[in-house]
Amino acid sequence: MRKPVLTIFYQYDPWNATIGGIQTIISSFIKYAPDSFRIRFVGITSDPSLKLRCWHNLSLKGRDVMFMPLFYMEDDNRRKLIPTTLRYTWSLLGRHLSSDFMHFHRLEPSLATSRWSGEQTLFVHNDIHSQMLKNGGSSKQGGMLWSRVPKLYLALERKLLKRFSHVLSCNSDSRDFYKANYADMADRVSLVRNTVDGELFHPLTGDNLAAEQDCLAKELGLEPGTQFILFAGRLHPQKDPLLLAQAFSKLQQQNNDLSPHLLVAGDGELMEPLRNELDRLGISASVSLLGPVQQSELIRLHQCASVCVLSSRYEGLPLVVLEALACGTPVVTTRCGETPKLLSEKSGLVCSERSPEVLATAIEQILIHPEQYPVSACTQDAKPYEARQVISELYDQMLSRWKASTEPAVA
């Protein structure tokens, strides 16, 4: 019996380190794909030797994958004049890439699929409607170009959503919005858990943790025993790293007994504004801008950090939260996305407002009283999001639907 084919559509190069939770989710979905499926991925490439718009037999995360790059892009960490999503959607138009299952992680590429056959699923990674309302039409504030023309986005959404057999959102507010506003397809909308790979993200304890923290401090020219605050993500208006810089400055002002060091792992359009803000605040020496880091180094940073901080304006369920918790690291977050519903009182703090003072006070609380946020509480909150289990359940559901659709009718 032939294997069902899953084709995944997203605008990134799986073999080139780019920043983003969606990329991590897709990589895990490929890594934990059962042998009962054939996997194809339609993306972009930074390798000029790969022929465009052709299938290539490659290996990713130990899994055989058919890969089709639509266009070449060397650096996808920074926004371009022509949005990558637009280029990607344009490159799909006129092509026929039907498949038993098709997974989309942005709405726009489904403009190309009106004549394609197969089950289409949309993964929703942000609470897009709350984002547009909060931004008040400003893409600068939230980084989403659709914020300038929300009515146009809603019209496009209403037209395209009907093509999807399933709409899976990692954010309960977003799920509820779709169910309420698209009543005719409410039974196709459900909540899906984002995932963290427990084989990779796990805590260090005791002497191993202390040794790794001191090693990291030495590499950065810092004193042994330095407490690390970690920000990991794209330097983008959504993540608002400038707010974090201001909060870190407040933290230093309000508690001279602490001498923490801020680690910023990521790149993006706000790198230079962030450098300028650090200089303005006079805290550049206490901050390490690490740029994009490989996954192995990111795991190490999570393990060594005393606290992981999100200063975001809006979110779905950010992967960095699950990764931090899986490494036993407590989280401080602004009140956005699914994170406030995930954290327990022993795994992190949710800020009552988005201000440097409130964010600084929450970080200070965890640095002063780490015993109140034990490793066990953090890992317990991450456990339901273990990638192998969550993804296996999704594939089992897909396989059951496929078998039901291919079984011959009983006379």
Q: Provide a count of the helices.
A: 15
**Computed CA radius of gyration, to the nearest angstrom:** 22 Å
User: Element order, helices and strands?
Assistant: EHEEEHEEHHHEHEHEHEHEHEHEHEHHH
CATH-assigned homologous superfamily of the largest domain: Glycogen Phosphorylase B
Query: Could you list the spans in which at least 5 consecutive residues all have pLDDT below 50?
Result: 136-142
On the 0 to 100 scale, the average pLDDT is 91
CATH architecture field of the largest domain: 3-Layer(aba) Sandwich
In what order do the strands lie side by side in the largest sheet? 3-4-2-1-5-6-7-8
Percentage of β-strand residues: 15-25%
Q: How would a textbook summarize the main sheet?
A: 8 strands, mixed
